[in-house]
């Protein structure tokens, strides 16, 4: 019998009564490794009610105690980084190093959450009027919820609940049904770190369970990371229900390559940034825009990308793993076919790649297109596979024009030796995270993850100071204390 993934409600791992189960598969073999239940309406209600009750005492827990919980949690996550990574490898197929990185980037957010006392400082001004002071406090909202995607099953849940809980909120997390086991292990460690019961709840399922969170009056804020269509739905439905929402969505990230860049650095950067993690990264570089004579390097880039191969996580030579599901693979393959049909030049075609001994894996080999134009489907759609599309323009202005016309704005980078070109690019580009000779510029957690345009709906972003603003309210107090010895004057009618 396959294991059923448990729910984490009111401080206990519980077996769901749901009859609706979704298989969790090893994407390298299709072996069913667990069944994830879609939490029943009662179980959803219990999770939210327990989080609501826990909020009453958690919000009164001193900020220094909340910080210490995060310190203990970070230590446990570090101790168990390898075993969490092993779960990621089995349910998502990432390489071991990549899976460890997934956990590590989450740990960095927990370390940041341990700084919560200084992050929650308000503002003060003395003598705003004679003998009157104004000061502000930051207070938690209540029960917050998180809905996360499959591609970073450790990092993205850890973007959310540690910051929310450190701020004094309680949290209901609905991880991806495609790789739900990673979060259960993380929740177990959070409890072991001393999290009081009810502070974190983990419910499993899909749209139906998300809809409960979106409509429930006791959920005050929703954090979402996932695809564009779902992100728009979450943002519209959540705000329609008068909730605070931050929704991080899909992306199409461009790297601009100037002819004065260091060729070898460009080639090395493009290999990892385009096909690493099987292209299943919201910050992957999926479009390389070569300016002028830099276009001569395209064949060399394709040759370097052609040297990497997908494989199973137990193979130390595998550069990346499978796509998450047969459907995801079929979608990537159909987009590759569409690219050829619409006239792009396929310099490297990974459609037929197989991995010895794993005939049923969701493999897609590295793929590179040139002569891509902005009207092609492979340019317009997020492929979310190991596919690099390349295009050529004749000036930096033209490259900036292409990037700024994209509806997405998650990340971008420029490779150049010119400070002037880099400065112009960082200033004029309408994208929220910019790398200069850095292909994937994901900010560390003392900054925030600041996607723009169609890659983000909301205003306050994930982690850093913006997360504290998202998960809190500001209370501003204006105070006067009378001197008992001075006689009160008459009423002030002004
Ligand atoms: P997805 O949108 O299919 O699923 C995300 C979450 O939403 C899951 O928990 C899922 O159960 C839930 N969901 C799915 N359909 C739903 C519906 N109709 N109504 C309500 N909830 C629904 O995304 P995915 O395939 O798991 O993840 C890949 C996507 O996530 C890519 O588009 C990628 O770019 C994006 N992503 C974005 C960022 C970012 O920071 N911008 C980071 C990581 C991933």
From TrEMBL:
<protein>
    <recommendedName>
        <fullName>methylmalonate-semialdehyde dehydrogenase (CoA acylating)</fullName>
        <ecNumber>1.2.1.27</ecNumber>
    </recommendedName>
</protein>
<dbReference type="InterPro" id="IPR010061">
    <property type="entry name" value="MeMal-semiAld_DH"/>
</dbReference>
<dbReference type="InterPro" id="IPR016163">
    <property type="entry name" value="Ald_DH_C"/>
</dbReference>
<keyword id="KW-0520">NAD</keyword>
<dbReference type="InterPro" id="IPR016162">
    <property type="entry name" value="Ald_DH_N"/>
</dbReference>
<dbReference type="InterPro" id="IPR015590">
    <property type="entry name" value="Aldehyde_DH_dom"/>
</dbReference>
<dbReference type="Pfam" id="PF00171">
    <property type="entry name" value="Aldedh"/>
</dbReference>
<feature type="domain" description="Aldehyde dehydrogenase">
    <location>
        <begin position="13"/>
        <end position="477"/>
    </location>
</feature>
<dbReference type="GO" id="GO:0016491">
    <property type="term" value="F:oxidoreductase activity"/>
</dbReference>
<comment type="similarity">
    <text>Belongs to the aldehyde dehydrogenase family.</text>
</comment>
<keyword id="KW-0560">Oxidoreductase</keyword>
<dbReference type="InterPro" id="IPR016160">
    <property type="entry name" value="Ald_DH_CS_CYS"/>
</dbReference>
<dbReference type="InterPro" id="IPR016161">
    <property type="entry name" value="Ald_DH/histidinol_DH"/>
</dbReference>
